[in-house]
Amino acid sequence: MAQPLQTGNNGSVDNIVKKNTDHQDGETSQPPNLQPDAKEKKELHSTHSFEWCWSSKSPASITCNKAQTVEDLLKGSSEFRRIAEKNKTKELVIVRDGKAISSHFPCSLIKNERLILKYIKAANKPKQPCSGSVHPCRKRPAGELVMFHVLTTGGKDVVKIMRNPALRATVQEITIYAYQGEKVKQALKRDARFLKTIFNKNCALSHTSTEVNTEMSNLVDDLDGKTYKIILLNRSNPTESQSSSLDDNYIIQSESQRSESDENQDPSQQSATIEALNDNTSEKKPKLNQSIFREIPDSKQMRIHLSSEFKHLMKGMKSEVPKFSRNQNLLHVEYGKSAETCRKVKTMKRLMELSSSVCQVRFYGDPVGSGFLLVDKFVLTNAHVVKKFYNETTKQLDGRVTAHFFYEDLQLVGGEVEVEEVVGFEYGPDASGHQYDWVLLKLSADKKLPDGLLPETGFCPQGGAVCIIGHPDGGVKKIDPCLIVPSHDRNNVVERHYYENQGHVQLITELFFERVSESVKRHTQDLTYESCFYFGSSGSPVFDKHCKVVAMHSGGYSYPGLTGTKHSVIEYGHPLSRIIEHILVQMVERGRADVLKAYIDCPYPHHDIMMTNLKKLVESRNITAFRNALNSSVVKNDQSLKMFFDFFSQKEEFVPMDIDT
Known about the structure:
The protein has about 650 residues and is an alpha+beta fold. The chain folds into four domains: about 1-35, no CATH class; about 45-280, Roll (Ubiquitin-like (UB roll)); about 340-385 and about 400-415 and about 450-575, Trypsin-like serine proteases (Thrombin, subunit H, Beta Barrel), CATH 2.40.10.10; about 590-650, no CATH class. It has 20 helices and 24 strands. It has a six-stranded antiparallel barrel with strand order 11-12-13-18-17-16. The longest helix has 20 residues, at about 300-320. The protein is globular. The protein starts with 12 loop residues before the first helix and ends in a 12-residue tail after the last helix. One of its GO terms (biological process) is DNA replication.
């Protein structure tokens, strides 16, 4: 009778089979039925599709409903496998929206797009092809992913940054994916397309538009959708937190564990080693040196003395009265019940419908502000949003500007509409001294646009709740319900912020708050409120409780808090009705019949009141362009335009116009 098989290590037979059949190169000859089913380990997600094409071939569609890499998904196509086999000595480049993504890019980020496949000369001798992806997708919610872009050419003294020089000749930018909460260095190392140089030197990411630097030790959370260039900060060695952080154990082997051959190792195989190492080191924790605390000799008398001095100091601070105001009762301000900010479900549903007309304005893909479709294909936003790249002499934009209406989720891409031209611009005080800050942008007509908000125009209320919809901090579309600060309460809000910042170390001067107080008193026509919409939200529409657009969110008075975070004393919006008046005046002076026609052909409830106010403005400033327009052939041949300008030549009392639309 045969003796039972002895394992010698108290392990299972399966372990013995695996141990005896593994090769030195890491590949296994274990029978198929003992191999783990990779498909069973893949996390399910919502079904999505995208197209891919190679060379001049017709595009092919592919669908996925499981978490995997783009390359893994493509390997399910027999046509892709044929192409890959034909180019097995070359390196695969996957181009998405003109930028190269990595082969281990999560497929869940590609939706309703077309990928272009290219093959370039490999940097190193290619390794033996693997049967599966060496970058298994991390099972984390797709909402935690962020994407940012990096130029393939670095800055001065660090120009060559790509492992494969042929990649730099193929594309100008590459797209990096990362997980919220991890550092820039971790994301770049996982990508595996960069040279080791950028990690050994004191490099950082420099924003291509603002030139603001982001160091390698920073988190990636705020990088989504932005484009950067890798630059050399200085020639000193990287700081300890940047070069040898414990976080690196999450991504790569330490230098003592890495062999000399890793430098020339293929990026994909090196990443496989990285993933394996993560499993082995994830449970290791650094040991902290234990400290022994001892009492300082003869310290009791010192402690009593310091305690007495502290009490004396606190008593003196309480007796001091700030110079800003002697009326301490102003600290207590009643703004109304917080329930005023609550909205009926019906109201919120209506606001959600109107929010589709709100967009994010971007310059070369980077968010610069918010805006909304006013009428037809004309978007309204603040002039200061585009001022840096708008030439007021030539009336031309100095770069590519786009509007994005559907950026409501980090995973949503596309849906951008190109800006054709600037049709109106005003930045600064007018003849009466009131500040104006608006720009009207004309979009290209090749895409279907949402409805404009001109029919929903209203007038600024004196109090109550409002809602702002926009893209604060350059992020996704958000809504902020807040309360109006009436003109008689503005100074109280300023004083409240002043007293809240009276710390032992005074960061904000009394003069700052005095100037804010004077400013809000002068701008009587602006709508003021306390909102959390700060940078990136300029140009957002402000809705009243009846879902009418009453103002355009334009700015606030910001200051740094004790923790370094940004705060704002009070925020304001310019009344939309006054902006429309100035738009119409400028369109008449510039002879923009297309904008005037779009306005006339879009009736709304307050049209008659708006026309009356506009006529008063024209007469008070003696704007002759309205009378001269009647002699234009364009006006003579268009009945609606003729009726529009005839109204301004009437001397009698206003009679509501009947315009056929």
